[in-house]
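User: Quick sanity check before I run a bigger batch. Here is a single chain. Can you write out its predicted 3D structure?
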Amino acid sequence: MRLLCAIATTFVAFAVIVDVQKVQAACGYANCPSGKVNMINVHLVPHSHDDVGWLKTVDQYYYGGRNGIQQAGVQYILDGVIQELMKDAKRRFIFVESAFFFKWFNEQTADLKSQVKTLVKLGRLEFAGGAWSMNDEAAVHYQSVIDQFTIGLKNLQETFGTCGRPHVGWQIDPFGHSREMASLFAQMGYDGQFFARMDWIDKNARLRNKTAEMIWETSESLGESAELFTGLLYGHYSAPPGFCFDTLCSDAPIIDGDSYDNNVKERVDTFISYIQNVTAYYRATDVITPMGDDFNYQNAVMNFKNMDKLIKYVNERQTRGSKVNVFYSTPACYLKALHESSLTWPNKTQDFFPYSSDWHSYWTGYYSSRPTQKRFERDGNHFLQVSKQLVTLANLTSTADHNNLNKLRHAMGVMQHHDAITGTEKQHVAADYNRLLAAAIESAHTSARSALQKLANLTNGEFVSCLQLNISVCDFTQNGADGIVVTLYNPLAQPASQYVRVPVKNESYVVTDSEGHVLTSELLPIPNEVQSLNFRTMGATHELVFRAYVQKLRSFYIKNDGSLRYLKARFNSIPQRLNDIRKSRQRGELKTVKDIEGRAETTVKTSLIKLTFASSGHLSKVEMNGITENIRQDFFYYKAASGNNMEFKNRSSGAYIFRPNGTELLIGDTVSLSIYEGTQVKEVHQRFGDWVSQVIRIYEGVNRVEFQWLIGPIPINDSIGKEVITRFTSNLQSNGIFYTDSNGREMLRRERNKREYFKPNMTEAESGNYYPITARIAIEDSKKRIALLNDRAQGGSSLNDGELELMLHRRLLRDDAFGVGEALNETAFGQGVVARGNVYLVLGDVQNTPSLYERLEQQQIHMPFAKFFSSAPQGAKKDLAEISSFSLPPSVHLLTLEPFSVNERLVRLENILDKSETFSVSLNLRSLFDQLGGEELRETTLDGSLNLSEMSRFKFQPESSKMKKPEYYKAKHIPLSAKKKDSTSKFDISLDPMQIRTFIIKWK
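Assistant: Done. Predicted structure follows.
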């Protein structure tokens, strides 16, 4: 019996191989099925939406662990789907999340890997999206989005060649959609994208007007070249009602044959009726119909067997006059059919935020959920960029270094997932995300340390990177900073001068640079509220502050100024150096203001900025850039609605939605002040109450005001959830207009209570006017402009003229009934989570293009110096010399510098200014090319895996067009290709406003 089974199994395998060989090898568009003329051509798209963490951790979802929470195991989905695809050449399946796919693929046998490659080559297994995860679009920063697409598409390219490259974005589950995300798709060479979520009023209007598919004008600066076809799925991303054939569903299978329960006629009638209804809302006679849902296809046999029958019996109806033609397809093939039609399409210019799913559900709370996790993700990105640059400059090429970088790349890719950076996951999953990221940072730190040891010629340097500087803790310095080297790495492409803060004990210190010059330094007290945190280790009570100028890499030395031995070892002229030290060591004066009642105004100023505080202790006036404006800053909290979530109208705020009950309460009628005034730094320590405090800082030579807030534990003894904001109130006549960034890049104009295409439901006025703030929000009138820059993703708005607000922290006691099943009640160390972060204010004259300067400040905030700590070697003089570096124009950002393959480096250069702020910038890449040991250079699409000269994207015709012939977008400039032997002029390039250009440099 066993022998017969073995023979049968061998026969089936042979039959599958023969079947594969009979099909012509063609992937992508070349293998798309052909529809029928004068028919409704239904593109069935089998797919499974597999969250990279949500209710379960990444590994739990992959392996099928903890199925009591959710029945899901991605490895079984792929096991079954691959076997079913091999049985029939007509079947198709799309997969999206590279994180899951490559975890599965790398576990397979060589034979199965070969079979999968054949399926991809034949177009039967196709990738859509293809990034490491399906990223969120509100809380993500564009740099991290580009990185996670780069790693996903690179793996697909290396494994499957051009057949593995996706043609469309498949953003079906994110909770709103950004214009910048669509722009990135266009810049990566995608032909279009599809999604399923849109404000319910917007969606109804678009379906009614047949405008659910459109040409998205994704960039005011990049123009036509960044247009992207975008389509909204009719229902959700699930199968049509009644046609889910997975074990997770209870819909009826198709029962044929002579069974008494034969339901073919009913099933076909119902399906055809559904398709005819869908067609009434779209312009084309081609219809895309997803067949799948969350973690579907755990029983792939059941799914494909019933879809085979559905196709068979629906198409048989054509002999009786039916005009419905059904076949297996993919989103890319559906898009191809639309491109080949003679249809024209409406235009879209703004984004799709905020997203609302019903009368009382604006999904704007997740913009701010889990603020500490959102900041940790930014720290992860910062360390990833620094590590990639250091490994590249140090020319580290070992497998270990490659793996160390990839571990952090992968962890950051997971963090972009729409249930990770959003904060909409269960608490145990959030803890796992943090664990993964912390471990990945530690791995990358190993390679960063090796690179620093090589570049600095300090083989024994520890180069410790302190991950708790957010609470002014560094184990390396807090118990003594006598004889410490602080190594600073500048990830920007321009030399920069920044203030450095090092947690230390209350002692006297001297700071010198690598040339032995003594720097002015100041000692500031760490706020009492920070020192008293019960989870903070004791030790550092102060922060040593000094200003450092760094081109790329530079060291600075900290020494207790009582050590003459140290001075003798480093300096020849001790008396003169001591005199220098006395002049430079400015401890300043700490002034504590205790009498609040009746106190007059207090002012603090530098040469660039003057701040005035009212008698209540609140900020009341700001003077900078020749502008004076009354600006008051307050903290409030919104009381969360306390519904039971049994009905839409009773929903309460949760991880996803922001729904206040209409009451906002001021935190701190009066504020206690402690003022520190040094020569370089002025600080105002404010206490608004037991759980809200703040430090306002201005630095000499820095043209922004820093607000470092500390919030928590948010009290819940009154059984009321709270959502804490900071609000800045001015006299600007902003007329309902404000501006927010799109994923850290272009700014979008917002108008209170209005949308681009439809009249919104504003029964929830606060939450309905909230937008994602990834980097910046601003208001202006005819003369003045106020901008707030932040250090992590947050929600924000201008709810009244002259006001700007950001939501900083949330603690809620009820779930909002959108699936996570937990209240957003974060705790740590036995209490509610405490969050600390920074907001920066810039006041300027509208006539002087202040947004230009805001962007430059934004770069400094996003990519500050990286700090590494080591013990000072005895008698060292120039332990860490400045390494050579290329310098780019001020508006040009070194977005990426990283190892790409064994003998290739990837470089991205970006003009960070938009068309209202600058013109094209010209530069020459020869010095950068030579410094990286370049032999050849080629230009690619944004992701790095497609030569730009080979890019050809679908161009769709707007409603005003008369064109009937399909058109394509090519590169708008001649892609750069150069070799070492070429003249310097061959390396000339220009960067238009907001343009990013990507290059692969091959080296020996």
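The CA atoms of residues 284 and 318 lie 19 Å apart.

User: Great, the batch can go ahead then.
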